[in-house]
Design goal:
Helices cover 50% and strands 14% of the residues. By secondary structure, it is an alpha+beta fold. A hairpin with a 4-residue loop joins strand 1 and strand 2. The two termini are 25 Å apart.
Length: 88
């Protein structure tokens, strides 16, 4: 990322994967990432989840661990998009 480019769009910090007991977040998208990078990562995660879900439909379903992974990946993608300024 070119930090000398003052026109670069950067992310804001967005916490996710909340800890209900602590009322805080376990994970965070950091402020200052290039927005295009964050959007590409979000798109990659969403595409991977779609492929996993599609494979599960054709193969007797998905186990609980795979569904947990899909949920976490989608939550991460949502946080990346929110940090990039897209609607959550």
């Amino acid at each position: 990322m070119d930090t000398n480019n003052s026109t670069a769009k950067l992310t804001t910090a967005v916490g996710f994967d909340d800890l209900p007991v602590e009322d805080e977040f376990l994970m965070e998208v950091r402020a200052g990432l290039d927005v295009d990078f964050a959007e590409r990562k979000a798109s990659c995660l969403e595409g991977s989840v779609r492929r996993l879900l599609h494979m599960g439909v054709g193969n007797n379903g998905l186990d609980a661990d795979t569904l947990f992974l899909c949920s976490f990946a989608l939550e991460t993608a949502s946080a990346l998009r929110q940090a990039a300024g897209q609607e959550a």
